[in-house]
Amino acid sequence: MIPISDDPGPRRTLPVVTYALIAANILVFVVEQVRGSCFILAYSTVPAGITSGKSFGIADCAYGQPTPVYLTLLTSMFLHANIAHIAGNMLFLWIFGDNVEDRLGHVRYLLFYLFCGLVASAAQIAIDPTSQLPNLGASGAIAGVLGAYLVFFPGAQVRTLIFVGFFFTLAQLSAFVVIGLWFVLQLLYSLVLLDPNQVQTGGVAYMAHVGGFVAGLVIALLARPFIQRNMRHDTYYPYWPQHPNLRDSGY
Which end of the chain is more exposed for a tag (fewer CB within 10 A), N or C? Predict the structure, then answer.
């Protein structure tokens, strides 16, 4: 399933942080194409480097890893392996990020996004702390955005492209179905990769997705009561339960 658009209700603010994150990711991807694979390897997160605190130098590469090496936990969030990788991540961020930003506010949303990305990396490192495979991508942070969206807008309608073999169709599905199914698949794949024979084979960092999603879900659950009390008009988000005691707080 590929989400195309969503309908959680009108936004109150322009999602400048979401747009800036998308622009930053695209800009870094362009730099990657110019500077080559050495640049990607140097600024990716290497689990063994994080757990040992030592930089893993790339042979015959002009770019050394940042100092301290822990900075790669941040830089890796803006790297992508190929066009399909960045296209998929930016599509999800474009569709789901704007409304989560609207609920959290610009600054809190940016901190939330980065924190979920850090938790995602920590989850992936935890299952294989000695791995020397580079980890990169915004998907862990975006998974956190999906977790928050599921809390804030579970009944929002998501227009989804569904593939069945060589055939496809468009359908309106609730965010609970689209995001919930996505998370279940990530969880199942991550459990498979707990097999020591599988964890070192590379590919998708499913545990990072799980870690980021859970972080976003928990933060949104904790924040939701405070956000509800500050809602200016409850009709803006019809998928939230209606509370008769809500009043205009000037937010």
Answer: C
